[in-house]
Amino acid sequence: MSWNNQGSGGGGPWGGGGPSGQWPPSGGGGGATPPNIEELLRRSQDKVKRFLPGGLGSGRSISLIILAILVLWLASGLYRVQPDEQGVVLIFGKWDGAITESGLHWRWPTPIGEVQTPKVTVINRVNIGFQDASDLGGRVSGSRDVPTESLMLTGDQNIADVDFTVQWRIINAGEYLFNIRDPEATVKLVAESAMREVVGQTKLDDLITTAREQVQSQTKVLLQQVLDNYGAGIGIERIQLQLTSPPPPVIDAFNDVQRARQDKERLQNEAEAYQNRIVPTARGEAASVIEEATGYKERVIKEAEGEGARFTEIYESYRVSPDVTRRRLYIETLRDVLTGANKVIIDEGADGASGVVPYLPLNELNRNKNTNDGGQ
Fold first, then answer.
1. Distance, C-alpha 140 to centroid of its chain
2. Contact between 137 and 119 (Cβ < 8 Å)
3. Mind listing the pLDDT tens digit for each residue in 181-201?
4. CA angle, corner 124, sides to 120 and 126, nearest 5?
5. Domain range annotation of the chain
6. Is the pTM of this model over 0.90?
7. Which class is domain 124-245?
8. pLDDT score recorded for residue 294
């Protein structure tokens, strides 16, 4: 049924609201004209016919509609991977092993394809042997020890309380999502096992003092090897030892043992210092005595050799001229005997009488004279 604005004619399609068929009814003159719905429908049909010749029911129009829907569906396969993410594309729920890096990519739209983009630059943290506020949901402050995780047996059959932290991140998003069910729990269990293996080969004293860096590096290597064998797609960034000490019930006894060992080391160091001071001195004195003995030996040998050579020489001279040699030996012997003695010469006088001849030591007088002259 059509409805037209007929001015002052009959009522409208709603039964006429006034004497002149106006809407809304009013008792006065001309008012606002209502929209012509039939005219609007007709214009809409004309626009559709221009885009879809033959109307909505024609084959061409249906093809265009299907093509538009297909284009929109394919366009929905575009996705963006952020710089801190990796894209994992699934086809009918299966990962084909490909990883997409940051940028704009396309994959089969839903329901054929699906994409997951986990963040691979975030450093995750797992605490082993203790729980802090983040593990407890912020309900308490400080930390709480977990003995079932922290108590470990060392290489010298002692028990150590070891708390440590593992920092890890995703290096292969596909392996991380599909090769292991609970990545964080897996990292925690494998890290605890690796730490127990390394601590089991380390002495307690070394674990507490000098071997901390070595334990951390060995545990990191072992943990990474196990995760790589699992194909976990996880990279271990760092392992940090938080606490390494004996269990609380035996800490006092352990401290006593440590103090005793320190006293032992101190006494050993003092003894070694005394040894290092005394031994070189004794060695030096021994070397001096040896050198003196060696020098005396060489001197005595040389003197003996000289005496022997002199005796041989005298013997040769004696064999050539015995009388001269005997006289020379007699004179030399008297010289040696009378050199340092006070001498009195007694000579036989005339007619067999003895007379005393005074001895004038001219050599000594000359020597004393020279000494006095030098003193003046």
1. 33
2. no
3. 899 999 999 999 999 999 999
4. 150
5. 124-245, 247-342
6. no
7. alpha beta
8. 92
